[in-house]
Amino acid sequence: VLGGHEGPVSCLCFSPVHSILASVSWDRTVRLWDMLNSWQVKETLPLTSDGLAVTYRPDGQELAVATLNGEVSFWNPQTATQTGSVSGRHDLETGRKETDKITAKQSAKGKSFTSLCYSADGESVLAGGQSKFVCIYNVKEQMLMKKFEISCNLSFDAMEEFLDRRKMTEFGSLALVDEGAGDGEGVNISLPGVRKGDMSSRHFKPEIRVSSLRFSPTGRSWAATTTEGLLVYSLDGSLVFDPYDLDMDVTPASIRKQLRLQEWAPAIVLAFRLNEKALKQEVLEKVPHEQIPVVCSSLPEIYVEKLLGFVAASLEKSGHLQFYMTWAQSLLMLHGQNLKNRSGAILPTLQALQKSIQRHFDNLSKLCDFNMYNIRYAVALSKQRGVKRTAKEEEEEEEEEDEEMSENMSVASIEEAELML
User: What is the pTM of this model?
Assistant: First the structure.
């Protein structure tokens, strides 16, 4: 048992590189415990308010502490000195509950962060607590980088800064009045000291809260446990599940069953209804090359546009150039008139397709021109080597040329003499 705090301990965190435990308490201190040698307090860091959360940087060289006054302070655990702080009370932007007798601005003075987490590189810290917002701060610059609104569900309490005027009276909010559960008979007001009555009659409306935050090891996503559930925010678009016309029979198993039965068009339709990128690519690339025009002709019009957009995106990155070019050609040839009628709506898709094709054309045309010039040079060189002459033949040809030149000169001199005569 480690004793020393004079108030409740609100959070604990082990150092990732040393055998040191950091504990933060309501007694306005952070204590660093040596867990290997003495099990005693190594350092005590004084805070300006009650401590609520503490976390180590991944390299163990910095400590972040959230306090009740809405601040996040940064400490060097080696020297026990404060390196910076961020005032996040104005970033919380709390709302007004229906039973609050004060405004949201006054209520925000009692709000604070209750969970902290460093990013994988240690340059940013994630903070969340008694608010619908989660904030990311840059540690070095000590400024807000981005703020995420985790919920817009108005069934939760304190979601809006101002209460609905229709629920306000001259005496205050209607939520402060207990209307009871009877049929218009009202409710009996309990007298002071009375222990009997219906203790189960109550009205409860949950308030949005962030109880925990964690970054992924790669730093490309983070998760938050909130009143509404577990939320995951990511930079990877593949984690987003956005189905189209989803039904109970639209599953990966049913799609692969259609592939085994060689029902290509139904498999493509089901894959685009499920809208999983990897599954759509798997289905398209299993369609035989010679069956592509047949499959394109049997697709519904609504899936033609979706397939054309997927082909345009895949053509830019895939190495199956001829395969996806065949898909694009078949779709444009067989459904060209319908696509032309909706050219304004699908203009981004057509531009993406043209961009992909033009990029491949530019890359391949340079390579093909270079190869053609090399082939021509090799052919010309081979012809010259095939008619290579010996040195004796070259000497005989040079002598014959000299004789011809002397004869021509003698003939020319005779003609000039005749002209002079």
Answer: 0.56
